[in-house]
């Protein structure tokens, strides 16, 4: 048998173990990061802004409702808002208000970086692997979030909703990312925190890793992904352990 990196069958105990044989590059040659909820803890900032804006408009958004929009692109979010609030819900006013509350919060508090990101990034850098960001956010919003988190310039390649005709869960963003990385899609490791993202990664043909931003973890995403970890640190600790 040649040198390979292999995923075990078991997904118990917080995630499948990565069994390494020989050189890890024989398994994947590039890494594709999602942004919201995976690299950055933006989900909590969005929830706070949405709840304040909805309250000002006479609605009550629970934390669970806000988190149910995790991983969705803006058109899907807007449709969910209409379904929840009614056809006469003023999306323009809501977007304006939530934007004001969001910027007020992040300008004061910043945006937190998820546990284990720098550890994992160091190992990817040391391996000489290309990596990129692939997000359902608009590029201007993605770049703003990265700047607020202190990660401006960390990702030389940012693939956004603007770069494709269809957002996740369609596979377009991952296929575009693989093209930018000049790497076959089946040699890309995709890191995602939502069912929407995992679906897109699987449809594209990547090796998909599910690292949830919301607990308990979505069982459908756990079952669909090739592997599941509780955070990026767990992945970083095992991915190069030989």
Model description:
The chain has about 240 residues and is an alpha/beta fold. The protein has two domains: about 5-10 and about 20-40 and about 110-240, Rossmann fold; about 45-110, DNA polymerase, domain 1, CATH 1.10.150. The chain has ten helices and eight strands. Helix 9 (about 220-225) links the parallel strand 7 and strand 8 (about 225-230). Helix 1 crosses helix 4 (about 90-110) and helix 5 (about 115-125) runs parallel beside helix 10 (about 230-240).
Topology:
Elements: E1 4-7, E2 18-21, E3 30-33, H1 43-56, H2 63-67, H3 74-85, H4 91-109, H5 117-127, E4 131-134, H6 139-148, E5 158-159, H7 172-181, E6 188-192, H8 195-204, E7 207-210, H9 219-224, E8 227-228, H10 232-239
Parallel strand pairs: 3-4, 3-6, 4-5, 6-7, 7-8
Antiparallel strand pairs: 1-2
CATH architecture field of the largest domain = 3-Layer(aba) Sandwich
What Rg do the Cα atoms give?
Answer: 18 Å
How are helices and strands ordered from N to C?
A: EEEHHHHHEHEHEHEHEH
Kindly estimate the percentage of residues that lie in beta strands according to DSSP.
Answer: 5-15%
CATH topology name of the largest domain = Rossmann fold
């Amino acid at each position: 048998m040649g040198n390979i990196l292999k995923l075990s069958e078991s997904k118990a105990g917080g995630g499948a173990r990565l069994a390494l044989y020989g050189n890890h590059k024989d398994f994947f040659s590039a890494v594709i990061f999602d942004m919201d909820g995976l690299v950055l803890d933006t989900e909590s900032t969005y929830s706070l802004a949405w709840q304040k804006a909805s309250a000002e408009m006479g609605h009550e958004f629970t934390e669970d409702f806000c988190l149910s929009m995790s991983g969705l692109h803006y058109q899907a979010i807007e449709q969910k808002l209409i379904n929840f609030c009614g056809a006469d819900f003023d999306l323009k006013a809501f977007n304006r208000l939530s934007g004001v509350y969001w910027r007020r919060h992040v300008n004061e508090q910043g945006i937190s970086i998820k546990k284990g990101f720098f550890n994992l990034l160091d190992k990817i850098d040391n391996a000489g692997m290309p990596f990129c960001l692939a997000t359902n956010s608009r590029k201007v919003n993605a770049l703003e979030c990265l700047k607020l988190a202190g990660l401006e310039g960390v990702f030389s390649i940012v693939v956004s909703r603007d770069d494709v005709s269809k957002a996740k869960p369609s596979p377009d963003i991952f296929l575009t990312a693989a093209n930018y990385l000049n790497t076959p899609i089946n040699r890309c490791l995709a890191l995602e925190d939502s069912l929407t993202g995992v679906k897109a990664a699987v449809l594209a043909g990547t090796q998909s890793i599910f690292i949830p931003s919301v607990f308990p973890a979505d069982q459908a995403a756990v079952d669909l992904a090739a592997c599941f970890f509780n955070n990026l640190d767990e992945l970083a600790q095992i991915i190069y352990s030989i």
